[in-house]
Amino acid sequence: MVPFRLIPQPGVPVADQVVFAAKKAMFSGKLRPGDAFPSVRTLAGAMKIHANTAQKVIAQLTADGLLEVRPGIGTVVVHPPAARAGRGRLLARDVEQLTVQAMQLGITLEELQGSLAECWRGLQKEDGHHER
Amino acid sequence: MVPFRLIPQPGVPVADQVVFAAKKAMFSGKLRPGDAFPSVRTLAGAMKIHANTAQKVIAQLTADGLLEVRPGIGTVVVHPPAARAGRGRLLARDVEQLTVQAMQLGITLEELQGSLAECWRGLQKEDGHHER
DNA sequence: TAGGTGTCACAAGTGCCATAGTACACCTGT
DNA sequence: ACAGGTGTACTATGGCACTTGTGACACCTA
Q1: CA A72 – C1' D27 distance (Å)?
Q2: How many whole angstroms separate alpha carbon A119 and alpha carbon A71?
Q3: Three-state DSSP class for B70?
Q4: Is B99 within 8 Å of A111 when comparing Cβ atoms?
Q5: Distance in angstroms (rounded) separating the CA atoms of residues A95 and A77
Q6: What is the CA radius of gyration of chain B?
Q7: Contacts of B94 in chain A (CB under 8 A)
């Protein structure tokens, strides 16, 4: 029913995990623009979390511009505003962290870039499968 | 005195920030294998944190194999064991997260790889400056 | 009208984090 | 031997974020 699952990660907030899983579902094509997003209470029931936590998920995704709220109806997946005017700076912290961690593991830059490309294509390859 | 500083990040534990700053200092050559690492109390004083928190930093870095403890003497920076037997799997979570966030911002894979390379070289270029 | 939708508010419980203080075993100087 | 510096361990406390719990409201559709 819900187009994504999650494997509980200890230490990271459940709400953030669900948000991440939802984004992944969107960018991999399991949730396409126009599709109805699970309601707060439906999501809460499916994810075995509290309705209040599910509400935070919806609010977060809405704030990120990935969901649009139809009052009284529900929420719908929208196409990201594609606002990237020098937003690369927002990733600086994450890029730096990934770099340091890779260096610690003795991984080369090329290997890291390869892993990144592999992960990238792994998400995009399912992009045309709306026929479940 | 202490070969690294940190810019307080709200929301992330101070201990983790110091650990990250220390690692960055190591991989950028500001701290080379054989150098003495600041003592618990010195680190606590310089970073304006509690000695107990500084102790956690030392413990973390030691557990990561980046520091070696000489009982009664102090801690010394050691060369990472370079143990990378399929450890690329440890980065999977971070790679996936960075990928999704980049997609959300509408950044292309090539741009992301470019940012990564830039950050990488930015750390390595200072690698020969021990003449301080 | 009945039911489903998102939204908000308040309280209680839990756990992590940083601080605080104290103590111990170890080694190196003099 | 001694004093001083080192890492390590323990308990306790206050603050903060997270989750859950419960209830309520305004909105829309059938």
Answers
A1: 5
A2: 36
A3: strand
A4: no
A5: 28
A6: 17
A7: 94, 97-98, 101
Query: What is the SS3 assignment for A23-88?
Result: HHHHHCCCCCCCCEECCHHHHHHHHCCCHHHHHHHHHHHHHCCCEEEECCCEEEECCCCCCCCCHH
Amino acid at position A78, single letter: V
CATH number, domain B14-77: 1.10.10.10
Q: Kindly compute the dihedral angle of the four CA atoms of residues A83, A85, A90, A95, in this order, to the nearest 10 degrees.
A: 110
Domain residue extents for chain B = 14-77, 87-124
Cβ of A50 < 7 Å from strand D? yes
| Structure-block tokens of residue A59 | 């609010």
Is residue B66 within 8 A of residue B79, CB to CB? The reply is no
Determine the distance between B131 (CA) and D16 (C1') in angstroms.
44
Q: Write out the DSSP string of A84-109.
A: -SSGGGGGHHHHHHHHHHHHHHT--H
What is chain B's pLDDT, residue by residue, as a tens digit (132 residues)?
788 888 888 899 999 999 999 999 999 999 999 999 999 999 999 999 999 999 999 999 999 999 999 999 999 999 877 767 677 788 999 999 999 999 999 999 999 999 999 999 999 866 655 443
Select from B64, B67, B71 the least CA-distant residue to B35. Answer: B67
Closest CA to B76 of B131, B119, B36: B36
Tell me which protein residue sits closest to nucleotide C25, measuring alpha carbon to C1'. Answer: B72
Complex prediction ipTM = 0.89
Residue B111, H or E segment: helix B109-124
